[in-house]
Structure formats: C-alpha cells, structure tokens
Amino acid sequence: MQSLLIIGFVWPESNSSAAGGRMIQLISLYQKQGFKITFASPAQDSAFSTDLASLNVEKKTILLNSSTFDAFIKELNPALVLFDRFMIEEQFGWRVAENCPNAIRILDTEDLHCLRLARQKAFKENRIYTTQDLLVEEVAKREIASILRCDISLMISQYEIEILTTTFKIDQSLLLYLPLLLEPEAILNATTTPSFENRSDFTFIGNFLHEPNWNAVQYLKQTIWPLIKKQVPEAVCKIYGAYPSQKVLQLNNTKEGFLILGRAEDAQEVVKQARVVLAPLRFGAGIKGKLLEAMQCGTPSVTTTIGAESMHGDLPWNGFIQDNPERFANQAILLYQNEKTWLTAQENGFEIIKQRYARTLFETEFNNQMQNIQKNLEQHRLNNFMGALLQHHTLKSTMYMSKWIAEKNKN
Fold first, then answer.
1. 56-90: per-residue pLDDT in tens?
2. Cα separation of 54 and 67, whole Å?
C-alpha cells in the first residue's frame, strides 16, 4: 500500500469552513485509490477538528524549522505529499524534495490567495481591481513560485486556472481542476428539503476568520438589511459562523431582526430551514462553499458577481446575482415572497450541482492524472524547467534560513 502525507496549514474542521470540508473530500478520494494517509500539521489542535482517526488517517504533529521532520518523512517515505496551501509548501517543500525526491509534490491551493488579496486591497483603496494588481501583489510571487515547484496543483476555480495560464503563463499540465465535490447520496431534490411555506428568515453563514465573510456581514448590516427590513418589517436575518470576535457579536440587534448566532452545530440544518441565503461578498477568490451548500439544501441565494464566480458556468443561478445594493435587496425580497420564483431558483441550484459538482464527474480524471504523473514523473519534471530552476535556486534561501532558525532555537 502506497502512502500519502498531507501537510496541513491547520487541522481540518469540516463543520467550520469549506476548506475543512474540502480536505476531507481529498482524503476520501485518495483513500479510494488505495493510499494509506498520514495527516501532519504544525498547528495547534482544536476542539472542533475533525476526528481523523475515525477516517483511518494517522495524525502527526510536526515542528517548523526542525530537522525532526527530515527523519519523520524519510521513515514514512511517502509516494505522494500534498501541501495544504502555498505557505506550507514554502516551509516543507524543500525538505520533502531533499529527503524524498521521488515523492510527487501536490499543492492544494484552496483558492488563489494572491487574487483574493489583490481584490481586497483594491476594494479597501476604493478602486476597481485589474489584473495589473495581481502582477504587483507580493504574495503572487510566492504563490506562483510554489505552484511551479510542485508537480501538480489542485485548482478549485476555472477562472483561477484561466488567470494562471494567461496572466502568469503556467503550463496547463501543472494544473488540475477539482472543485468542491458532492457524493451522489448528498445530492438532494425538492422532495427531500423543506418546502417554501415551511421555511422562514434570511441567513448568512461563514467562518469569521475569513476576511471576505466579515466584510460581507458588515455590508449586510449597514446597507442591505435596512433596505430589506423597510419593505418586510417582520423579516429576520440570522448570521452564523465559526470564530466570531467581539466586533462581530456587537452587530447583534434583536429590534432590527439582525441576529448574530455564532457557530452552527449543524450548518446544513440551519440553511435548510432558511428561505433565502444572502451572500453579498465584495472580494474573494475560489468558489464559495456557503453557496454550494445553499444549493444542496434547496435554498435559493442572492450573491454578487464575486460570489458566483466560476460556480455555475452557463447554467442559470439558483436565485440572483447582483452587485447593486438596492437591486440586491429587491431581488432578495422577491425570492422571499414569491413561491414560483423561489421554486425555479431552487431547481436551478439542484441542476448546477448535478452538472458541476457531483463527485462522479471528476473522480476518473483525478485518478488518471495522479497515475500518469507517477508513471512519467521524470519527464513531467523535465518539461517543467522553470519549476526545476526555482527548486534549485529560490529554495536555497528558504533552506538556509530554516537551518539558521533551527540552530538559533537550539541555543
């Protein structure tokens, strides 16, 4: 049995964020291929971490800037190593390459961090984002270098693949499109979710450690919700999300019907009971787990162009996509009050899932790509000369800095 080492930026929390759920999906895909999986992370454990032992995944705490990792990975001798985000590849990629040169190095980008940060900066500077922002974004230099150093990068968004291949000239052979996936039994329909009349309220759900979510809730509270509340006085907006800070909790206002409810014990149950999901995201990247979950629960949504990016292809959205706050509010009210419009939107969501997120659509290609790289690893790396160059030169600075820190820590 071949082994796979996953090095996590954090321990996965499948009930706290889409990123946590995504990691559990990847574990499942590799286990189905027959891999024995070890999950290692330098992060502190959390009470909300997924029980990896119940998934037959071995758990290992590792140290940053420590040669103990070298001994650990030599003994494990994995066939594949998956880095959870580029920051982890920066820390451990050179150690993997040095101690297990024949291990395939895979990067799970989660979303393109440089795109999210470039958009965030443009938003905060009150100007329109352009691809020029990407080219001057400091994180882009690090993230693109990480992608080039790896044998394959798993991409969650087709738009991000387009950016990488056109703006950054990354070869398509280094990228694999793998969105959030749903198991066949998890794909619901109108008969397995609550009906229009058995639902109430608007809702938003998202991890508050993620800046786009916090910004969206502020925008909801200050701009969009007053417009909805004015026309629908009895309306209530329930805000759920893991790790709410005091500044988030202070937005709670019962009189305004704007309720900050913190972590949802069962996110799907919360979304199923809501009539409309609101997601006025003004910057970000990747695809949005909250909106896929809304579709899965049969709950129509109103979101922005950024929110819906790369999620529905040419298919009609399960609700409305709107960047203007007044129209956003009006279309949210239309969904909330008009059952016919609501049912059409719900069916659109189920269709998007069937055509774009069913696990069976991607599993075969994913397996084939992994096997092809394993069989042709030497040629695959020869074809990626820029990656080899970066591996040779750029990581020398990382390697010696890490060794210097390790020696300093000894003293």
1. 999 999 998 888 999 999 999 999 999 999 999 99
2. 30
